[in-house]
Design a protein that fits this description.
15 strands, Urease, subunit C, domain 1, 390 residues, 2 domains, alpha/beta, 11 helices, TIM Barrel, seven-stranded parallel beta sheet, globular, binds zinc ion
Length: 390
């Protein structure tokens, strides 16, 4: 009689960082039926169909990138092509679609992706279709909230962005829609003399709302003495979240370094990934995390802000963990030491000594990215293979 294995896949000997469960130690991780089945100091190899040696590597929950672009304007990137090579198993599209075109986004991208795609619905009805984001008549909070309520599993919040006008229609509309639908809002800040950053953080955003582009050139971080504004720290104390949102224009070493040195670190790490940030300055999750690590953030903190904190920000606390019973979204990283360099949004470089590189990305129990084929059998021991199952 054939013996059934207790586990489909056993990741053996890696260093697990799972902040939600307080784990930062050598652990084996076992997966069965697409779920985390066990995390333990030693799990018997004999109980597993496939055993993968990950000694010397870090095993983490699949990363959650809460600010990406997967729809709605010319520069977006596909969730799988971006996410899987980078250890990202959940992306949140930040406002590509509004209530008028969300269902098109869902059927054409969200439902077709292996990476989990969640959405922030743009307060603008037509989403990020260029000039439309300046049209205040498009900012209707009622139909926006109705669409959020129609897709509670997929839409996690509201996005307000790119609005240059003098008024608060974009921000206040997003907050009203968020109130009506019971979700948070992600807000970016475009400078305007009639709308200050201080007013945005202290008077318009709610606790739980997130300001993205915290290290952006267009975000005023410092007072005349070069210190992070007191009102920014006050906003953090009242519960406003601060997110990286690297993108093409929002990660500058000359801003990030003094902010980090003064203890103004991100609550969540995200990329704002699109074609304008993917190649240069290469603002992917592992690279953005590596930049912060080289500026002084411990690895464990970088993982925490890309998993547990991100899950909390989007109100999906079951994501971003390796808890037994959770969907098996797992990333395996090498934390390299060497002579590396990173490029910022100003296209200036920084020499550095540490770099995170994703080796394996597992989504719902399946290894869909495998840099060196460590989850795959050797070709010369695989018999008359045509195509081996994942
Ligand atoms: Zn963005």
């Amino acid at each position: 009689m054939a013996r059934t294995s207790a586990y489909d896949l056993l990741l053996r000997g890696g260093h697990v960082i799972d902040p939600a469960n307080g784990i930062d130690a050598r652990r084996d991780v076992a997966i069965r039926n697409g779920k985390i089945a066990a995390v333990d100091a030693r799990i018997a190899v004999s109980g597993a169909t496939k055993v993968v040696d990950v000694r010397g590597k870090y095993v983490t929950p699949g990363l959650i990138d809460i600010h990406t672009h997967s729809f709605g304007y010319a520069a977006w990137t596909f969730p799988d092509e971006y996410g899987l090579p980078n250890g990202v198993t959940t992306v949140v599209d930040a406002g590509g679609a509004g209530w008028k075109n969300f269902e098109q986004f869902k059927s054409s991208i969200i439902d077709q992706s292996q990476v989990r795609v969640l959405a922030l619905l743009n307060i603008v009805g037509a989403g990020m279709l260029g000039i439309v984001e300046q049209d205040v008549t498009e900012m209707q909070h009622e139909p926006c909230a109705e669409m959020v309520k129609a897709y509670p599993d997929t839409i996690v919040g509201i996005k307000a962005a790119h609005h240059d006008g003098p008024g608060w229609e974009s921000v206040d509309g997003a907050v009203k829609a968020g109130d009506a639908a019971g979700v948070f809002a992600m807000i970016d800040y475009h400078r305007h003399p009639k709308r200050t950053y201080k007013e945005l953080l202290l008077d318009h955003m709610r606790p739980g709302d997130v300001h993205t582009h915290m290290y952006g050139l267009h975000t005023p971080q410092f007072d005349e003495r070069g210190k992070v504004h007191k009102f920014i720290r006050d906003a953090r104390r009242r519960g406003v979240g601060f997110d990286v949102g690297h993108g093409g224009g929002s990660f500058w070493f000359r801003i990030a370094k003094p902010c980090m040195d003064q203890g103004f670190q991100p609550d969540t790490i995200s990329t704002d990934v699109h074609k304008g940030s993917f190649f240069l300055p290469r603002g992917t999750m592992p690279i953005t995390m590596s930049k912060l690590i080289n500026l002084g953030m411990p690895l464990r903190e970088a993982i925490d802000r890309s998993t547990r904190h991100a899950a909390r920000a989007i109100n999906r606390p079951k994501l971003g963990t390796l808890s037994v019973g959770a969907e098996a979204d797992v990333a395996v990283f090498e934390f390299e030491t060497g002579d590396f360099g990173f490029v910022d949004s100003g296209l200036a470089s920084m020499r550095a000594t540490r770099r995170l590189t994703c080796h394996v990305t597992i989504r719902a129990g399946k290894a869909l990215w495998d840099l060196n084929g460590i989850t795959r059998p050797a070709w010369d021991k695989s018999g008359e293979y045509i195509r081996l199952p994942v």
